[in-house]
Amino acid sequence: MTLRTLIMARSGIEDKFAQLALGLTEAGKPRILLMGSALTRHPDYKYFQLFEKKKHSTESLAKSFKRLKEAGFRR
Q1: Which branch of life, at top level (predicted)?
Q2: Of the candidates 21, 55, 70, 71, which lies 20 to 30 Å from 30 by C-alpha distance?
Q3: Do residues 10 and 56 lie in contact, with contact meaning Cβ atoms separated by under 8 Å?
Q4: How far apart are CA 28 and CA 75, in angstroms?
Q5: What tens digit of pLDDT does each residue of 21-70 get?
């Protein structure tokens, strides 16, 4: 599950699709995403937190590289 989470974060998929892939949906309703305390109480919520953390750090790194490239930085 951790590897799947890291791959999703690295690929930059939307949060709602990550939630679906991690099974953070209402029981018996696979298309209805959990929200609020129901989401945070889910046993796999820790993976969604990891996804958000890694996605944010990946986006920040990509922005940094883009700024360097725009500034004319070359290897």
Answers
A1: Eukaryota
A2: 55
A3: no
A4: 53
A5: 999 999 999 999 999 999 999 999 999 999 999 998 888 878 887 888 88
